[in-house]
Amino acid sequence: MEPYDTPSMTDSFEPAMNLFAALVTTLQDPAAGHLPHHELEELLDTRGRELLRQLLQDHLDLRARREEQAVQSRRPAVIGPDRLSRTRRELGHSRQLATLFGTVTIRRCAWRRPGARNIYPADIALSLPSQRHSYSLARLAVLEAVRGSFDAAKAAIGRRCGPVIGKRQVEDLVVAAATDIDAFYQARIPTPCTASTLLVISVDGKGIVMRPDALRPATRKAASRPSLFRTRLASGEKPARKRMATLATVYDAVPAPRRPHDVIAPPGGRHGERRLRPGPRATGKWLTGSVIHDAAAVVTTAFDQAEARDPGHCRTWVILVDGARHQLDLIHDESVRRGVTIQIVVDFVHVLEYLWAAAWCFHAAGDPAAEDWVAARALTVLTGDVHGTASEIEAQANTARLPGDRRRNVNACVRYLRGKAKFLRYDRALAAGWPIATGVIEGACRHLIGDRLDISGARWGLAGAEAILKLRAVHENGDFDSYWRHHLAREHQRVHQAPDQGRYTLGA
Fold first, then answer.
1. pTM (two decimals)
2. Cα separation of 320 and 229, whole Å?
């Protein structure tokens, strides 16, 4: 074989130097002195990005020449992950890589063996991805996609990097980026807390509009039923196009004892200057969720996180829910399986909603007296007299002889109070300093799902919805940078499997 002709190393960055010199010449030209600042910025942005791309290309070309020189001066062998030696080398192999600065070409040597796949030591040294787009570009795509729509992400990347990626490729990168989230959190050790710190778990669900093939079987069956009208839904009819996602949060809180009047103002409003006692504040908040897996899997994951924070079950575990029966059953079963004592508290705001619905059965629309009526009953509930409140409301309805249609909300309120009475011990919760509202998980549902997955016109597939939901949770947890380092390490193992390069050493 003829010796490979290698140009002088001193000329490796000559193309980039020429671009830089041309840019300086342009800026020195008298015509540039008449440009407004925004045109100067646009000039530097466009030509500066090309300069950076050329610098990267020149560096990659330098590494390629050094590799070619190394394999010609010695005739080593490369051992692949299959433990087979490859002694046949072949020059001239290349691949393209889309980067933050544009697309570059990577030349490298292939090491071959009949019946085995090629090994590219340069790919391992550069930790190249299996696909066309660099990890830095993938990271940018993920950050833009979790913030806004895929179209907006593509446009934002195009403004910064040029035409290096399409919408479908952004979606694929986002799905691939979420691969290691579960493993990342399983290996993570939470910051320990004292035994007096509350450990709070809260679970909730929210529907996501899905493509027909991504619906659960029951919802898909309901969607296939013919509608009463061709052009609109009938009264009480649902479009059957959503799949329920389950979210959970685990957080720590220092107990903050309160009184009922700290939560609800007495009838007529507060008087005087007595300061209200603040409620417990959430710290160390951790969020998770899934649209692929059912609520049982998400509850199990939340309990895993809680047990990692309190493996000895020394802390008080407070479970905040909205009262859904299936959630209560799942939480109870999980606590029994793990042998942990839990304190279940149903969201006080849900109680208020039932009380307000009942109030309008006794008051005309817009009557200010309804507010005092609700405040009086809410304070009674907060003092622990749930059954007494239910009996009082029922007796008032009997005395007023409300007809069936006007009594419907009264009956619903009474059933709710009596059915959930053992979870409405707000007197004990306030005295112990526990939280009594699900605001943390409610806010998470609005932020993680409503602000991104529920944007107008969005129709989701399972993989894309799951990836966006999990990545938004990682970002909200403040763990994205740590997770991305973990993800890149796992990607390197998956793509390159850390093969033994034997006696082969790349020049850097």
1. 0.86
2. 41
- Residue 353 within a domain: yes
372 and 265 in one domain?
Answer: no
Classify residue 23: in a domain, yes or no: no
pLDDT at 501 over 50: no
Residue 455 DSSP one-character state: -
Q: Which helix (H) or strand (E) holds 76?
A: none
| CA gap 250, 199 in Å, rounded | 7
Torsion angle, CA of 211/155/158/492, rounded to 10 degrees? -40
**428 and 457 both lie in a single domain:** no
Same domain, yes or no: 320 and 361: no
What are the tens digits of pLDDT across the range 262-279?
A: 999 888 877 777 888 999
Q: Where does the pLDDT of residue 502 fall: very low under 50, low under 70, confident under 90, or very high at 90 and above?
A: very low
DSSP symbol at 79:
E
The single-letter code of the amino acid at 322 is D
Q: Are 386 and 368 within one domain?
A: yes
Distances (CA, A) of 494 to 81, 171, 181, 499, 505: 11, 20, 15, 11, 22
CA 260 to chain centre: 36
Task: Give 210's strand partners.
Answer: 460
Task: Please tell me whether residues 406 and 462 are part of one structural domain.
Answer: no
Which residues sit opposite 107 in a β-bridge? 94
Angle between the 150-161 and 167-177 helix axes, to the nearest 10 degrees?
100
Q: Measured between alpha carbons, how far is 301 from 319 in angstroms, rounded to an integer?
A: 14
Residue 293's φ and ψ, nearest 5 degrees, are -85, 155
Q: Token pair for residue 218?
A: 């029951």
Q: Is pLDDT at 254 greater than 80 in this prediction?
A: yes
Rounded to the nearest 10°, the torsion over CA 178, 179, 181, 184 is -140
| Enclosing domain of residue 266 | 194-226+236-270+277-346+440-478
- Separation of first and last alpha carbons in the chain: 25
Of 415, 436, 457, the residue at which a domain comes to its end is: 436
The residues with which 317 forms a beta bridge, in sequence order, are: 199, 342
Within 8 A by CB and 6+ apart from 185, the residues are 288, 305
- What does the alpha-carbon distance between residue 423 and residue 443 come to, in Å, rounded to a whole number? 22
The answer to the question of residue 152 being in a domain is no
For residues 215 and 305, state if they share a domain: yes
Neighbouring C-beta atoms of residue 309, cutoff 10 Å: 20
Number of domains in the chain: 2
Split at pLDDT 50, 70, 90, the class of 235 is low
120 located within any domain: no
- Which pLDDT band holds residue 404 (cuts at 50, 70, 90)? confident
Residues 307 and 252 in one domain: yes
Helix, strand, or coil (residue 505): coil
What does the radius of gyration of the chain's CA atoms come to, in whole angstroms? 32
| Same structural domain, 323 and 392 | no
Cβ-proximal residues to 16 (8 Å cutoff; 6+ apart), any chain: 51, 54, 55, 57, 58
